[in-house]
Fold each of these.
Amino acid sequence: MSRVSVLFVCMGNICRSPAAEAIFRHCAMERGVLDRLSIDSCGTGGWHAGEAADSRMRSAASHRGIEISSIARQVIQADLADFDYILCMDDDNLDHLRSMGVDQRAVLMLEHHDSHRGQGVPDPYYGDGDGFQRVLDLLEVACGHLLDHLGSQHDLEE
């Protein structure tokens, strides 16, 4: 069985997209379908390439039993062809990927899988600790719905 590949994209790949990657991985592991998925994250900018996720986001996620261990990287052209699903955190990220020529069918806003539509996933980087909690709340719901969707589309669960 081929793996379904999912890429989460935000601005710098140190807050939202690594959190989405970790939450999605955690949900997939709990449901027993992790081995059927390939999961990664990246940023539209390269400012933080090679860095661990923001310590505030790692701490907030850790309190929920979720480990964020990815290292930041910038999106590359090959990502646009290599991933089955590309999930953006906000309109700016979506516009950036479109300017790179991404296949419109492959890229979605992550919020498409949540009832919190129309606002994107807010960037908590310049805010306080509550912003990180709010983002994690949104990501947990959206990632759960995304996994439901992929499960029904690709028959992930046996």
Amino acid sequence: MAGTVERKLSELGVSLPTPATPVANYIPFVRVGALLFVSGQICLDASGKPVAKGKLGAGVSPDEGQKAARACAINVLAQVKAAVGDLDRVTRVVRLGGFINSDPAFLEGPKVMNGASDLMVAVFGDKGRHARTTVGVAVLPGDAAVEVDGIFEIA
């Protein structure tokens, strides 16, 4: 039977994909004590296709960027589940880091990153409220529009 968090994901219409395997010399997550560090996840959908490619502010709209950030957050959660087996073991979303493939004049990166943050709060409630960094970058792997990493406290 699915736990509370997975039931909430289901209510939101979210199915966790098979976690992506690393494309370079790193591992998808590292646990240190009660903290789980999840490597950056790009905005791939369940079939492995990009939700959005290109630069925010130069071909990718803020709404498309929010959807991409949400997809990244779903992929982060898939890695958390692979790491700990049960998402109900998450006691706190500590921090999310967002990397937004941006035109230099694009200033709405924080709004884009809300796509990831809003999902964490919707899924975990107050435990999903987190510290956050949002950084505009020149390029991301595969020309992805967004990449998100995370730190979680695990029981």
Amino acid sequence: MASAQSLLRARDLAGIGIPTVALTRLVKSGKLERVSRGVYSLPDNTISEHRSLAEVALRVPKGVVCLLSALRVHAIGTQAPHEVWLAIEHQAPIPRLDRPAVHVVRMSAAARSEGVEIHVIDGVKVPVFSVAKTVADCFKYRNKIGLDVALEALRDAWVQRKITVDSLMHFATINRVANVIRPYVESVVA
């Protein structure tokens, strides 16, 4: 199972009848390594660039990778965040992870459910916002990440032809930033 899926959760093994004591023994013998609390991997597994996103997706299954982390996944802009940016529901408790570091952004159910894509990273299904949704979110949260990051994301996504004006304005309307983003879109598209 560990060779088929590079990251394992303890509760996945418990679901198929393997006791957690077996994990402890495998870690002590060096056949598995503990990546973080409740997450295990083979010791010689190659680590991908986005492994921290897979770890967070396993530990916070209802979260969606957003903003700077989503820009990195889509190869837009120059941002290299040192923490995983994660969108959660308004009422959800803040995840307490020892590592990797997580920056939480609270979003309404409507804003969190639109534009979600599933990316498979290290054998784990990771929900990530689409490019157009991510760019619209950058403008919504421009006070947190900076207007320069939002403008860079808009320019890069447009130049790389990863967004259309219609898709961007759709998500800008959902985020209630259509009037904010319109002048910037007109200057980039023109």
